[in-house]
Amino acid sequence: QVQLEESGGGLVQPGGSLRLSCAASGFSLAVYDIGWFRQAPGKEREGVLCISRSDITTYWKDSVKGRFTISRDNAKNTVYLQMNSLKLADPAVYYCATGCPGHASYLYDYWGQGTQVTVSS
């Protein structure tokens, strides 16, 4: 089965941390740039950051710079999103996809189903 699957979401207090995983099955993540996106209730999905095939990180949201880090482990066919110092503005469903933000959704080969991140005291 060919799919992307996110995991690691949950409830965290402001200032806390979470690490999200984006695992691929049925294909290799190594040949793709991988992007993380998020969608908060009532808002459009937005690009957050991405990692290129050569491990270059590009941020789409200035508000996460210095707090979010993306990395990849091609041996595990997984991309990670380390989120530190989480804020009340960060809660959303987080998605990964095979490509960096900036394109129409249908142009990405694969999307994950999303994982919920909740920040609350």
Structure described in brief:
This protein is mainly beta. It has no helices and 10 strands.
What are its keywords?
single chain, 121 residues, mainly beta, six-stranded mixed sheet, four-stranded antiparallel sheet
Describe the protein.
This protein is mainly β and 121 residues long. 0% of the residues lie in helices and 45% in strands. The chain contains no helices and 10 strands. It has a 6-stranded mixed β-sheet with strand order 2-10-9-4-5-6, with no helix packed on it. β4 and β5 form a beta hairpin. It is globular, with a radius of gyration of 13 Å. The model has no long low-confidence stretch (mean pLDDT 96).
The radius of gyration over CA amounts to 13 Å
Tell me the strand order in the biggest sheet: 2-10-9-4-5-6
> What is the arithmetic mean of pLDDT?
96
Low-pLDDT parts are none
The biggest beta sheet is recorded as: 6 strands, mixed
Count of alpha/pi helices: 0
Order of helices and strands: EEEEEEEEEE
Rough outline: globular
- Percentage of residues in helical conformation: under 10%
How much of the sequence is in beta strands? 35-45%
Structural class call reads mainly beta
Report, as a whole number of angstroms, the end-to-end distance: 39 Å
Topology:
Blueprint: E1 3-7, E2 10-12, E3 18-25, E4 34-39, E5 46-51, E6 57-59, E7 68-73, E8 78-83, E9 92-97, E10 115-119
Parallel strand pairs: 2-10
Antiparallel strand pairs: 1-3, 3-8, 4-5, 4-9, 5-6, 7-8, 9-10
